[in-house]
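REQUEST FORM: STRUCTURE PREDICTION
Request ID: SP-0412
Submitted by: Lab K.M.
Chain count: 1
Length (residues): 168
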Amino acid sequence: MTKKLIGKYFTFKFVGRKYDISGVVLDYNDQWTFIRTCEDYSPNGFTIFKNEKVDYYFGDKERMATKILKLKEYSYKNDPKITLSSLDEILNSIDNKYGLIQLDTRKGDASDVVKYLGQVDSLYLFDELTTTAKWRYKLKLPEKECRFISFDNNYLNSLKLVTKFKDE
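STATUS: Completed
RESULT:
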């Protein structure tokens, strides 16, 4: 993928992952891709994923989505900027602005909703929020477990309402 693909809609397919991810590319480097996630032709949050075992597609579905987003007057230029230099910087940026983060498993069949606490040695520390909006326990994850990072989607914003979570 090259920088000229920024602002374009793609579907991303991952080896071993149950579900594809579709959206508009906002930024990219050798290690990470940052997209505006779209579901049912509507923007719904953001996802940053590791560029490992991933293929991207632009076909009929993606052409239709591009056309619909244009008719809805969506512009990727209005979306936030997140620096993709390191995982710690990515997580800190998201935590500072949005608070809640969704970490998906490699297979895409489960996720944890977390608040980033920081990095100790090679582990990333999080408070975990249950599906019933209760803080449960601390998670310590290695970088390889933080491959799919989502934020500011309808699900997370709904949990913020229930928990009276404050963006600080």
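NOTES: DSSP finds three helices and ten strands in the chain.
Reviewed by: T.R.
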